[in-house]
Amino acid sequence: MLQLELNEVLEETADAAFSVDPQGEIRFWNASAKNLLGYAPSETVGKNVHTLLRCRDALGTKTCTGDFYARQATTENCRLANFDV
């Protein structure tokens, strides 16, 4: 699926969704993410997710860190797994 098509699908979902590149830079941010997290796409796209959100998982472990994206970028095909924060 082309990135533009994926973004169109994600824009229509009621779930907050965003995408990042292998370095953790936000490339897409939907309206539901704006409603949930309070940041407009114009405030997020191009910024590093670990700087903006400082995410933690359900166990309190820091996620979305610079190291996390550096490790993930070295995996096969630079694919980042989906995860909840």
Would you identify the CATH architecture? 2-Layer Sandwich
Helix content: 25-40%
Arithmetic mean of pLDDT? 79
Task: Give a short account of the largest sheet.
Answer: 2 strands, antiparallel
**What Rg is obtained from the alpha carbons, in whole angstroms?**
13 Å
Question: So what's the overall shape?
Answer: globular
Distance between the termini: 25 Å
- Name of the CATH class: Alpha Beta
Order of H and E elements: HEEHHHH
Indicate the low-confidence ranges by residue numbers.
Answer: none
Task: Report on this structure.
By secondary structure, the chain is mainly alpha-helical. The chain has one domain (about 5-80): PAS domain (Beta-Lactamase). Helices cover about 40% and strands about 10% of the residues. It has 5 helices and 2 strands. A two-stranded antiparallel ribbon has the order 1-2. Strand 1 (about 20) and strand 2 (about 25-30) form a beta hairpin. The two termini are about 25 Å apart.
Record keyword descriptors for this entry.
85 residues; mainly alpha; Beta-Lactamase; two-stranded antiparallel sheet
Strand-helix topology:
Elements: H1 3-12, E1 18-20, E2 26-29, H2 31-37, H3 41-44, H4 49-52, H5 66-73
Antiparallel strand pairs: 1-2
Write a brief structural summary.
By secondary structure, the chain is mainly alpha-helical.
